[in-house]
Amino acid sequence: MIDGKKVLFSGMQATGNxxxxxxxxxxxxxxxxxxxxxxxxxxxxxxxxxxxxxxxELRQRARKLLTLxxxxxxxxxxxxxxxxSHVSGHTELAWILDCFTYMGELNRMTQFKDKSAKHADNIxxxxxxxxxxxxxxxxxYQADVVPVGKDQLQHLEITRDIAQRFNAIYGDVFxxxxxxLGKAGxxxxxLQEPDKKMSKSDENPNASIYLMDDPDTIMRKFKxxxxxxxxxxxxxxxxxxxxxxxxxxxxxxxxxxxEIEKEFEGKGYGDFKQAVxxxxxxxxxxxxxxxxxxxxxxxxxxxxxxxxxxxxxxxxNKTLRKVQKKVGLPEKIR
Length: 334
Ligand code: TRP
Prior knowledge:
Elements: E1 6-12, H1 20-30, E2 37-43, H2 45-48, H3 55-71, E3 79-83, H4 89-98, H5 103-107, H6 110-118, H7 125-140, E4 145-146, H8 153-170, E5 178-179, H9 215-223, H10 240-253, H11 257-263, H12 269-296, H13 298-327
Parallel strand pairs: 1-2, 2-3, 4-5
Protein backbone atom coordinates (compact mmCIF):
# COMPACT_ATOMS: atom_id res chain seq x y z
CA MET A 1 0.00 0.00 0.00
CA ILE A 2 1.18 3.49 -0.80
CA ASP A 3 -0.90 6.37 0.57
CA GLY A 4 -3.80 4.01 1.14
CA LYS A 5 -3.76 2.75 -2.42
CA LYS A 6 -2.92 -0.70 -3.72
CA VAL A 7 0.15 -0.88 -5.91
CA LEU A 8 0.11 -1.82 -9.58
CA PHE A 9 3.30 -2.68 -11.45
CA SER A 10 3.81 -3.34 -15.11
CA GLY A 11 6.93 -3.67 -17.22
CA MET A 12 7.20 -3.35 -20.96
CA GLN A 13 9.98 -4.09 -23.38
CA ALA A 14 10.96 -1.54 -25.98
CA THR A 15 11.07 -4.08 -28.78
CA GLY A 16 8.98 -3.53 -31.88
CA ASN A 17 6.44 -0.81 -32.36
CA UNK A 18 3.31 -0.69 -30.23
CA UNK A 19 0.17 -1.67 -32.10
CA UNK A 20 -3.46 -0.64 -32.07
CA UNK A 21 -4.00 -3.86 -30.10
CA UNK A 22 -1.62 -2.68 -27.34
CA UNK A 23 -3.44 0.64 -27.26
CA UNK A 24 -7.11 -0.44 -27.34
CA UNK A 25 -6.47 -3.62 -25.37
CA UNK A 26 -4.28 -2.22 -22.61
CA UNK A 27 -2.75 1.24 -22.60
CA UNK A 28 -5.98 3.21 -23.14
CA UNK A 29 -7.66 1.42 -20.24
CA UNK A 30 -4.79 2.07 -17.86
CA UNK A 31 -5.31 5.83 -17.85
CA UNK A 32 -8.05 5.72 -15.21
CA UNK A 33 -6.27 3.15 -13.02
CA UNK A 34 -4.18 5.82 -11.30
CA UNK A 35 -7.27 6.87 -9.33
CA UNK A 36 -7.48 3.48 -7.70
CA UNK A 37 -3.87 2.26 -7.72
CA UNK A 38 -0.40 3.66 -7.18
CA UNK A 39 0.93 2.77 -10.62
CA UNK A 40 4.48 1.95 -11.71
CA UNK A 41 5.23 1.43 -15.40
CA UNK A 42 8.81 0.48 -16.08
CA UNK A 43 10.55 0.39 -19.43
CA UNK A 44 12.45 -2.82 -18.76
CA UNK A 45 15.59 -2.05 -20.70
CA UNK A 46 17.69 -4.52 -18.69
CA UNK A 47 15.44 -7.35 -19.81
CA UNK A 48 16.02 -6.30 -23.40
CA UNK A 49 19.73 -7.07 -23.05
CA UNK A 50 18.97 -10.79 -22.94
CA UNK A 51 18.95 -10.69 -26.74
CA UNK A 52 21.49 -8.72 -28.77
CA UNK A 53 20.48 -5.13 -29.36
CA UNK A 54 21.83 -2.29 -31.42
CA UNK A 55 22.79 0.19 -28.65
CA UNK A 56 21.63 3.39 -30.37
CA GLU A 57 18.42 1.75 -31.47
CA LEU A 58 17.62 0.37 -28.03
CA ARG A 59 18.12 3.78 -26.47
CA GLN A 60 15.93 5.42 -29.07
CA ARG A 61 13.14 2.85 -28.84
CA ALA A 62 13.10 2.98 -25.06
CA ARG A 63 12.64 6.74 -25.09
CA LYS A 64 9.95 6.43 -27.74
CA LEU A 65 8.05 3.93 -25.62
CA LEU A 66 8.18 6.20 -22.62
CA THR A 67 6.89 9.05 -24.79
CA LEU A 68 4.03 6.92 -26.09
CA UNK A 69 2.89 6.04 -22.60
CA UNK A 70 2.67 9.68 -21.68
CA UNK A 71 1.03 10.56 -25.00
CA UNK A 72 -1.56 7.84 -24.45
CA UNK A 73 -2.71 9.75 -21.39
CA UNK A 74 -0.74 8.29 -18.50
CA UNK A 75 -0.02 11.39 -16.44
CA UNK A 76 3.63 11.10 -15.33
CA UNK A 77 2.82 12.96 -12.12
CA UNK A 78 0.35 10.27 -11.14
CA UNK A 79 2.01 7.28 -12.78
CA UNK A 80 5.63 6.45 -12.15
CA UNK A 81 6.93 5.89 -15.67
CA UNK A 82 10.65 5.19 -15.57
CA UNK A 83 13.60 3.20 -16.89
CA UNK A 84 14.37 -0.01 -15.03
CA SER A 85 18.12 0.61 -15.50
CA HIS A 86 17.88 3.91 -13.60
CA VAL A 87 16.88 2.15 -10.40
CA SER A 88 19.70 -0.11 -9.21
CA GLY A 89 17.48 -1.94 -6.73
CA HIS A 90 16.09 -4.10 -9.54
CA THR A 91 19.38 -5.90 -10.16
CA GLU A 92 20.35 -5.89 -6.50
CA LEU A 93 17.15 -7.64 -5.47
CA ALA A 94 17.36 -9.94 -8.50
CA TRP A 95 20.69 -11.30 -7.26
CA ILE A 96 19.28 -12.09 -3.84
CA LEU A 97 16.20 -13.72 -5.36
CA ASP A 98 18.45 -15.76 -7.67
CA CYS A 99 19.61 -17.48 -4.52
CA PHE A 100 16.01 -18.42 -3.71
CA THR A 101 15.14 -19.75 -7.16
CA TYR A 102 15.81 -23.27 -8.41
CA MET A 103 17.39 -24.18 -11.73
CA GLY A 104 14.61 -26.73 -12.20
CA GLU A 105 11.95 -24.04 -11.92
CA LEU A 106 13.64 -21.80 -14.46
CA ASN A 107 14.17 -24.75 -16.77
CA ARG A 108 10.43 -25.22 -16.99
CA MET A 109 9.70 -21.69 -18.22
CA THR A 110 8.15 -21.94 -21.67
CA GLN A 111 9.46 -18.52 -22.69
CA PHE A 112 13.02 -19.63 -21.90
CA LYS A 113 12.54 -22.72 -24.04
CA ASP A 114 11.05 -20.69 -26.91
CA LYS A 115 13.73 -18.00 -26.80
CA SER A 116 16.54 -20.54 -26.52
CA ALA A 117 15.26 -22.20 -29.64
CA LYS A 118 15.01 -18.86 -31.42
CA HIS A 119 18.42 -17.55 -30.31
CA ALA A 120 20.32 -20.84 -30.27
CA ASP A 121 23.63 -19.00 -30.74
CA ASN A 122 23.12 -16.87 -27.63
CA ILE A 123 21.55 -18.83 -24.79
CA UNK A 124 22.99 -16.61 -22.08
CA UNK A 125 22.53 -16.75 -18.32
CA UNK A 126 20.44 -13.58 -18.43
CA UNK A 127 17.90 -15.29 -20.64
CA UNK A 128 17.73 -18.08 -18.07
CA UNK A 129 17.30 -15.81 -15.05
CA UNK A 130 15.00 -13.36 -16.87
CA UNK A 131 12.00 -14.39 -14.71
CA UNK A 132 13.94 -13.62 -11.52
CA UNK A 133 14.64 -10.06 -12.64
CA UNK A 134 10.95 -9.79 -13.44
CA UNK A 135 10.10 -11.09 -9.96
CA UNK A 136 12.42 -8.45 -8.50
CA UNK A 137 10.66 -5.73 -10.55
CA UNK A 138 7.31 -6.68 -9.07
CA UNK A 139 8.30 -7.51 -5.49
CA UNK A 140 10.47 -4.41 -5.09
CA TYR A 141 7.34 -2.23 -5.12
CA GLN A 142 5.25 -4.64 -3.04
CA ALA A 143 2.87 -4.73 -5.99
CA ASP A 144 -0.62 -6.07 -5.37
CA VAL A 145 -1.57 -6.38 -9.01
CA VAL A 146 0.25 -6.87 -12.29
CA PRO A 147 -1.54 -6.45 -15.62
CA VAL A 148 -0.03 -9.13 -17.81
CA GLY A 149 -0.81 -10.94 -21.00
CA LYS A 150 -1.39 -14.70 -21.01
CA ASP A 151 2.19 -15.28 -22.13
CA GLN A 152 3.49 -13.77 -18.89
CA LEU A 153 1.26 -15.66 -16.43
CA GLN A 154 3.89 -18.33 -15.88
CA HIS A 155 6.40 -15.64 -14.90
CA LEU A 156 3.92 -14.15 -12.49
CA GLU A 157 3.37 -17.59 -11.00
CA ILE A 158 7.10 -18.10 -10.37
CA THR A 159 7.21 -14.61 -8.84
CA ARG A 160 4.56 -15.68 -6.37
CA ASP A 161 6.43 -18.92 -5.63
CA ILE A 162 9.68 -17.07 -4.96
CA ALA A 163 7.92 -14.52 -2.75
CA GLN A 164 6.12 -17.19 -0.76
CA ARG A 165 9.32 -19.17 -0.32
CA PHE A 166 11.11 -16.07 0.94
CA ASN A 167 8.25 -15.11 3.26
CA ALA A 168 8.13 -18.63 4.69
CA ILE A 169 11.72 -18.23 5.84
CA TYR A 170 11.86 -14.57 6.85
CA GLY A 171 8.30 -13.57 7.70
CA ASP A 172 5.99 -11.30 5.75
CA VAL A 173 8.48 -9.39 3.63
CA PHE A 174 6.82 -9.42 0.22
CA UNK A 175 3.26 -8.74 -0.87
CA UNK A 176 2.08 -11.67 -2.99
CA UNK A 177 1.07 -10.17 -6.34
CA UNK A 178 -1.91 -11.15 -8.42
CA UNK A 179 -2.65 -10.85 -12.11
CA UNK A 180 -4.72 -7.76 -12.82
CA LEU A 181 -7.90 -8.85 -14.49
CA GLY A 182 -9.76 -5.54 -14.35
CA LYS A 183 -12.19 -4.59 -17.03
CA ALA A 184 -10.63 -6.08 -20.10
CA GLY A 185 -9.99 -3.87 -23.07
CA UNK A 186 -10.90 -4.95 -26.55
CA UNK A 187 -8.96 -7.98 -27.73
CA UNK A 188 -7.66 -6.98 -31.15
CA UNK A 189 -6.70 -9.66 -33.65
CA UNK A 190 -4.38 -9.68 -36.66
CA LEU A 191 -5.85 -8.08 -39.79
CA GLN A 192 -4.39 -10.87 -41.91
CA GLU A 193 -4.91 -13.94 -39.71
CA PRO A 194 -7.82 -12.92 -37.47
CA ASP A 195 -7.58 -16.02 -35.29
CA LYS A 196 -4.19 -14.74 -34.06
CA LYS A 197 -3.63 -11.78 -31.74
CA MET A 198 -2.41 -8.54 -33.34
CA SER A 199 1.27 -8.55 -32.45
CA LYS A 200 4.07 -6.01 -32.56
CA SER A 201 6.43 -8.76 -33.70
CA ASP A 202 4.29 -10.01 -36.61
CA GLU A 203 6.42 -10.39 -39.72
CA ASN A 204 3.64 -9.28 -42.04
CA PRO A 205 3.38 -5.48 -41.72
CA ASN A 206 -0.20 -5.58 -43.04
CA ALA A 207 -1.29 -7.68 -40.06
CA SER A 208 -0.88 -4.89 -37.52
CA ILE A 209 -1.72 -1.20 -37.24
CA TYR A 210 1.19 0.55 -35.57
CA LEU A 211 0.42 3.53 -33.39
CA MET A 212 2.59 5.79 -35.54
CA ASP A 213 1.19 4.63 -38.91
CA ASP A 214 0.11 7.54 -41.13
CA PRO A 215 -3.51 7.81 -42.34
CA ASP A 216 -2.81 6.42 -45.84
CA THR A 217 -1.09 3.37 -44.41
CA ILE A 218 -3.96 2.79 -41.98
CA MET A 219 -6.61 3.05 -44.72
CA ARG A 220 -4.62 0.71 -46.97
CA LYS A 221 -4.19 -1.92 -44.25
CA PHE A 222 -7.91 -1.95 -43.51
CA LYS A 223 -8.74 -2.20 -47.19
CA UNK A 224 -6.58 -5.34 -47.30
CA UNK A 225 -7.92 -6.79 -44.05
CA UNK A 226 -9.08 -10.40 -44.35
CA UNK A 227 -12.86 -10.89 -44.09
CA UNK A 228 -15.10 -13.53 -45.70
CA UNK A 229 -17.31 -13.99 -48.72
CA UNK A 230 -20.64 -13.48 -46.94
CA UNK A 231 -20.41 -9.74 -47.25
CA UNK A 232 -22.68 -8.67 -44.39
CA UNK A 233 -21.61 -6.67 -41.37
CA UNK A 234 -22.76 -9.00 -38.63
CA UNK A 235 -20.96 -10.26 -35.53
CA UNK A 236 -20.24 -13.96 -35.99
CA UNK A 237 -17.85 -16.13 -33.94
CA UNK A 238 -17.04 -18.25 -36.98
CA UNK A 239 -16.04 -15.18 -38.98
CA UNK A 240 -13.24 -13.70 -36.86
CA UNK A 241 -12.21 -11.22 -39.58
CA UNK A 242 -15.38 -9.15 -39.68
CA UNK A 243 -15.94 -9.57 -35.93
CA UNK A 244 -12.47 -8.17 -35.29
CA UNK A 245 -13.15 -5.15 -37.49
CA UNK A 246 -16.39 -4.60 -35.57
CA UNK A 247 -14.51 -4.79 -32.26
CA UNK A 248 -12.02 -2.21 -33.51
CA UNK A 249 -14.77 0.09 -34.76
CA UNK A 250 -16.64 -0.33 -31.48
CA UNK A 251 -13.56 0.40 -29.36
CA UNK A 252 -12.84 3.57 -31.37
CA UNK A 253 -16.40 4.92 -31.51
CA UNK A 254 -17.98 3.49 -28.37
CA UNK A 255 -20.72 1.85 -30.43
CA UNK A 256 -22.10 -1.61 -29.60
CA UNK A 257 -22.20 -4.47 -32.11
CA UNK A 258 -25.97 -4.03 -32.53
CA GLU A 259 -25.53 -0.35 -33.31
CA ILE A 260 -22.81 -1.16 -35.81
CA GLU A 261 -24.92 -3.85 -37.49
CA LYS A 262 -27.76 -1.39 -37.85
CA GLU A 263 -25.51 1.37 -39.17
CA PHE A 264 -24.15 -0.88 -41.93
CA GLU A 265 -27.29 -2.80 -42.80
CA GLY A 266 -27.40 -3.36 -46.53
CA LYS A 267 -23.89 -2.02 -46.98
CA GLY A 268 -20.86 -4.01 -48.09
CA TYR A 269 -17.46 -4.61 -46.57
CA GLY A 270 -15.92 -1.86 -48.70
CA ASP A 271 -17.95 0.85 -46.97
CA PHE A 272 -17.42 -0.69 -43.58
CA LYS A 273 -13.66 -1.00 -43.95
CA GLN A 274 -13.52 2.64 -45.01
CA ALA A 275 -15.43 3.64 -41.86
CA VAL A 276 -13.22 1.50 -39.61
CA UNK A 277 -10.10 3.00 -41.16
CA UNK A 278 -11.39 6.53 -40.61
CA UNK A 279 -12.37 5.79 -37.01
CA UNK A 280 -8.88 4.46 -36.30
CA UNK A 281 -7.23 7.46 -37.99
CA UNK A 282 -9.36 9.76 -35.81
CA UNK A 283 -8.46 7.82 -32.69
CA UNK A 284 -4.74 7.83 -33.35
CA UNK A 285 -4.43 11.41 -34.61
CA UNK A 286 -4.44 13.12 -31.18
CA UNK A 287 -2.11 10.45 -29.81
CA UNK A 288 0.35 11.02 -32.66
CA UNK A 289 0.17 14.79 -32.20
CA UNK A 290 0.96 14.39 -28.51
CA UNK A 291 3.93 12.16 -29.35
CA UNK A 292 5.26 14.89 -31.67
CA UNK A 293 4.82 17.57 -29.02
CA UNK A 294 6.37 15.59 -26.20
CA UNK A 295 9.29 14.43 -28.34
CA UNK A 296 10.14 18.04 -29.08
CA UNK A 297 10.07 19.01 -25.42
CA UNK A 298 13.34 17.44 -24.35
CA UNK A 299 13.43 19.29 -21.02
CA UNK A 300 9.99 17.99 -20.05
CA UNK A 301 10.79 14.37 -20.89
CA UNK A 302 14.15 14.56 -19.14
CA UNK A 303 12.56 15.91 -15.99
CA UNK A 304 9.92 13.15 -16.03
CA UNK A 305 12.68 10.58 -16.42
CA UNK A 306 14.68 12.05 -13.58
CA UNK A 307 11.87 12.67 -11.12
CA UNK A 308 10.25 9.31 -11.62
CA UNK A 309 13.56 7.48 -11.20
CA UNK A 310 13.93 9.25 -7.87
CA UNK A 311 10.41 8.27 -6.86
CA UNK A 312 10.89 4.63 -7.92
CA UNK A 313 14.24 4.51 -6.10
CA UNK A 314 12.63 5.75 -2.92
CA UNK A 315 10.02 2.97 -2.80
CA UNK A 316 12.32 0.24 -4.06
CA ASN A 317 15.02 1.10 -1.53
CA LYS A 318 12.59 0.58 1.31
CA THR A 319 12.01 -3.01 0.23
CA LEU A 320 15.64 -3.63 -0.64
CA ARG A 321 16.92 -2.48 2.76
CA LYS A 322 14.41 -4.71 4.49
CA VAL A 323 15.41 -7.73 2.40
CA GLN A 324 19.13 -7.11 2.90
CA LYS A 325 18.63 -6.96 6.63
CA LYS A 326 16.51 -10.12 6.70
CA VAL A 327 19.05 -12.23 4.86
CA GLY A 328 21.90 -11.05 7.09
CA LEU A 329 23.76 -8.47 5.05
CA PRO A 330 25.42 -5.82 7.23
CA GLU A 331 23.83 -2.41 7.45
CA LYS A 332 25.64 0.37 5.60
CA ILE A 333 27.52 2.89 7.70
CA ARG A 334 26.12 6.32 6.80
N1 TRP B 1 8.43 -9.97 -19.33
C1 TRP B 1 7.46 -8.96 -19.64
C2 TRP B 1 7.09 -9.03 -21.12
O1 TRP B 1 7.90 -9.43 -21.92
C3 TRP B 1 7.96 -7.58 -19.33
C4 TRP B 1 8.18 -7.40 -17.88
C5 TRP B 1 9.36 -7.28 -17.22
C6 TRP B 1 7.15 -7.29 -16.90
N2 TRP B 1 9.15 -7.11 -15.91
C7 TRP B 1 7.82 -7.10 -15.68
C8 TRP B 1 5.75 -7.34 -16.96
C9 TRP B 1 7.10 -6.98 -14.50
C10 TRP B 1 5.04 -7.20 -15.79
C11 TRP B 1 5.71 -7.02 -14.55
O2 TRP B 1 6.01 -8.65 -21.47
